[in-house]
Amino acid sequence: RRPIYLDCDTGIDDSIALAYLLASPEVELVGIGTVSGNVSAARAARNTLDLLHLAGRDDVPVAIGAQDFLAGSFDGGVPWIHGHNGVGDVMLPAAPREPDRRDAADLLRDLAHEHGGALSIVTVGPTTNIATALAREPGLPGLIRSVTTMGGAALAPGNISAVAEANIGNDPEAAAALLDAGWDCTLVPLDVTLENRLFERDCAALLDAPTALVRALGAMLDIYFDYYVPLYGERSCALHDPMAAAIAVGEVRSRRAPAVEIVVDTTRGPGRGQTICDLRGQRLGPVDQPGARTRVVLELDRPLGPHLVERLTR
Ligand code: BDR
Ligand code: CA
């Protein structure tokens, strides 16, 4: 089974991504680091421990990562999207354990050495911990098989500013470090995550699932669905973080994902956090730019929602 390290700001869609990875027979979740974003890094770790406990997986190490970003402070999160506790104000049974003694960057570094070139990274929050790990261990890219990162907007508008997506907009310097590291990287932007959704019937299926973890996900969707009503005109939600997980596992593939130059705007102006993707010359089909190491996912081979629900409820 392929080892995966998950870095997250748990979060409702982070929770779904976590459950999906736990349910995927091809991969082994070997460690999780948390970062501030939807909630504080410490709260995200608590949520993650509690979710793992509900899944009977108290064995997976969870390390608290960055409270603040490389060039800015955590601003308190987004309770109007993910609830005050980050998991849709669902009360999860408390896990009987504490986070790992290491911080997230050290956990990642240790796991990379332990798994010698086989470890894949999935990031579904700001990438501060990855940037810290790269600074501490410049040889990290040589120890990692692949990186899949949910973030950015290629041609779509942003979601925390006109042009910036939240994970990258919260820590543009860290995103730039991740994208410049020279490893095999796949960027999963809003362009595709907003086009894949869960609906009321999916929520009902989750609420009816055989496992307590998945039923808890169904309960979390109540508040998440409300948030998306103005965007979609109906109760449903986008599938941001689960899509990065599914692409990393390989069960959903991209139909169009050219390797292109991507520059993260780290200026202090209105473009801060924008992922400037050089998509020139792509009109007739995907064309990889020579030397580009990051693929940007623009289209999937099949809709994610039905696969996700099937995987979580069987
Ligand atoms: C991303 O921001 C967070 O709120 C979500 O969990 C997702 O990772 C979407 O922009
Ligand atoms: Ca997230």
TrEMBL record:
UniProt keyword annotations, A-Z: Glycosidase, Hydrolase
> Taking every annotated instance into account, which residue ranges of this chain make up the domain Inosine/uridine-preferring nucleoside hydrolase?
4-302
One biological process term in Gene Ontology = purine nucleoside catabolic process
Chain coiled-coil ranges: none
Q: What are the annotated GO cellular component locations?
A: cytosol
Gene3D superfamilies recorded: Ribonucleoside hydrolase-like
Q: Name one GO molecular function term.
A: purine nucleosidase activity
Q: Does the keyword Hydrolase apply?
A: yes
Name of the protein this chain belongs to: Nucleoside hydrolase
Supply the source organism for this entry: Sphingomonas oleivorans
